TrEMBL record:
Keywords: ATP-binding, Ligase, Nucleotide-binding. Coiled coil: none annotated. This is Acetyl-CoA synthetase-like protein. It comes from Rhizophagus irregularis. Pfam families: AMP-binding, AMP-binding_C. Residues 443-523 form the AMP-binding enzyme C-terminal domain.
Length: 535
């Protein structure tokens, strides 16, 4: 077997729970370190210190246990945009021995209901703006309204603020044995499956602890003076690991933004003297293309790290040329907690997505199922301490993605050179990546064919240079050719867009076709559609 190992020496990974890892006994640490501001609201300047976070998270844990009988292994769902207090709910749930299942707040009632039911959530913390969807989904998932709580201070109807749960006592955070650390699920983030239904990824305490320490070996400049910006959504594993765990572990500060808007983002980098930002290619593109970027002072920014979707060599070079700020990209998936590949800051090659993090091994498998070595494209298969426990309630999908030797098959085709640097070549999986979010073609196809005038449909992702992301494009066979009008295209788009979360909208438009190309087994030949689109 051709197994490639990380060129970075292995590290020791402690078998402790997430709470104990992030908040070890700090009797030796001076109080001013504990009073360090760790989260700041970029719009209101509201601050959360380390002391307050520890205290509030333990009070929240006590309230969960004492007031709503929340037990070890119970699941709490967060349905909200980024908040300064997001960390309080996360670490409070973890301290109580619970599992957190963060959800995309732009989900429809149907999408959120599926996640609530599949994850087995029994408690919801949401945001006033998204309360209506949360209540409807909770009703469908048989979660009582008394178990729905709000970020903020206001009570809406009978729904109370999450702080109403704060106990009179501080809970003693649950501790785990080394064996339990490796097998106990801490997070259930949802990842689109190519079959269309989302899959709940079980990320263990050990997975998160491992990934924070693995990343730290190539992010050696991280310390408590660093200021990060939390602009990526905290329900996404990328921000969950980086902004909720990595920055906190190093006692760095994180300026929280609820959603990306170009000018507020630039102002926050300037005013808060942000030193490092983890972002996605569309934000990097905006920083290159938007002339307003020149109006802001980015001199504090030492490093930009791109993830969640491929960053082209050209865009990487344009960014460096424009801003003279170091930029590098990593590679990962929800299933790898998430970072698997990342390079040293002073050694980043444009277009390269890094090297294997320590303690990781990989093998590359070509189309014929043969293992290949350097400079030959193959599917990246990974084994190591940050690989998920499996897909929740889905043994079949778990068995299909993790082989008998413990390697997770990513579905991405990569090449690696003799120096251990990786380059993504293509995706085997059919998922479309829109601004770092996954869109399953099968899900959109299932909606399209419910339209009475459509007899068949296929969806592919088409890359937009202008926005540095993929757009879903629908190929549609209409029952009558006379229906192939621009007006009907618009009707189809609205028909789909009204039933899905914003990131799944048919931004690439609708194209009419006489017949969807399929294999003998009936599988859609997306490659042919892509070729057709390019021509």
């Amino acid at each position: 077997m051709v197994i490639l190992r990380s060129k970075i020496p292995d590290i020791d990974i402690p078998t402790v729970g997430i709470y104990q890892f992030i908040f070890p006994d700090e009797k030796n640490v001076s109080d001013d370190k504990n009073d360090k501001t760790v989260f700041i609201d970029g719009l209101t300047d509201k601050k959360l210190t380390l002391n307050k976070l520890k205290s509030n998270s333990k009070k929240f844990a006590a309230g969960l246990q004492d007031k709503i009988n929340f037990k070890r292994g119970d699941v709490l769902s967060i349905f909200s945009p980024n908040q300064v207090d997001y960390a309080t709910v996360i670490f409070g749930t973890i301290a109580a021995g619970g599992v957190v299942s963060p959800a995309n707040p732009t989900y429809t009632v149907e999408e959120y209901t599926f996640q609530l039911k599949d994850s087995g959530s029994s408690v919801i913390v949401t945001h006033p703006l998204f309360l209506q969807v949360a209540v409807k989904a909770a009703t469908a998932a048989k979660i009582p309204e008394s178990n729905i709580f709000l970020f903020g201070d206001e009570k809406i109807n009978e729904i109370l603020p999450y702080t109403s749960l704060f106990g009179d006592r501080e809970a003693i955070p649950l501790e785990y044995t080394p064996e339990e650390v490796k097998n106990t699920t801490a997070y259930i983030c949802y990842s689109s499956g190519t079959s269309g239904k989302q899959k709940g990824v079980e990320t263990t305490h050990y997975n998160v602890v491992a990934n924070v320490l693995q990343i730290s070996k190539v992010e050696i400049e991280t310390n408590s003076d660093m200021v990060y910006v939390g602009v990526l959504p905290f329900y996404h594993i990328y921000a969950l690991t980086i902004n909720m765990h990595f920055t906190l572990y190093f006692r760095a500060s994180c300026v929280v933004i609820s959603k990306f808007d170009f000018e507020p983002f630039c102002r926050i980098i300037q005013d808060y003297k942000v030193t490092i930002t983890h972002i996605v290619p569309p934000i990097i593109l905006a920083l290159v293309k938007n002339p307003k970027a020149k109006e802001y002072n980015f001199s504090s920014l030492q490093l930009v790290i791109s993830g969640a979707a491929p960053l082209s060599k050209e865009l990487s070079e344009s960014f460096y040329k424009e801003h003279k700020i170091k930029i590098k990209q990593g590679y990962g998936l929800t299933e790898t907690s998430p970072v698997a590949l990342l390079g040293y800051t002073n050694d980043s090659t444009p277009g390269c997505c890094g090297m294997l993090l320590p303690n990781l091994e990989c093998k590359l498998i070509n189309e014929d199922g043969q293992e290949v070595g350097y400079n030959t494209p193959g599917e990246l298969c990974l084994r190591g301490p940050n690989i998920m426990k499996g897909y929740l309630n889905n043994k079949q999908a778990t068995d299909e993605s993790i082989d008998k030797d413990g390697f997770f098959h990513t579905g991405d085709i990569v090449k690696v050179d003799e120096n251990g640097y990786f380059y993504v070549v293509d995706r085997v999986k059919e998922l479309i990546k829109y601004k770092g979010f996954q869109v399953a073609p099968a899900e959109l196809e299932a909606i399209l064919i419910t339209h009475p005038a459509i007899s068949d449909a296929a969806v592919i992702g088409v890359y937009s240079e202008e926005d540095a992301t993929e757009y879903p494009v629908a190929y549609v066979v209409t029952k009558q050719k006379s229906q192939r009008t621009n007006e009907f295209s618009e009707e189809i788009r609205k028909f789909v867009d009204n039933q899905v979360a914003p990131h799944k909208k048919l931004r690439g438009g609708v194209i009419y076709i006489d017949q969807i190309p399929k294999s003998a087994a009936g599988k859609i030949l997306r490659k042919k559609l892509r070729e057709n689109h390019q021509n």
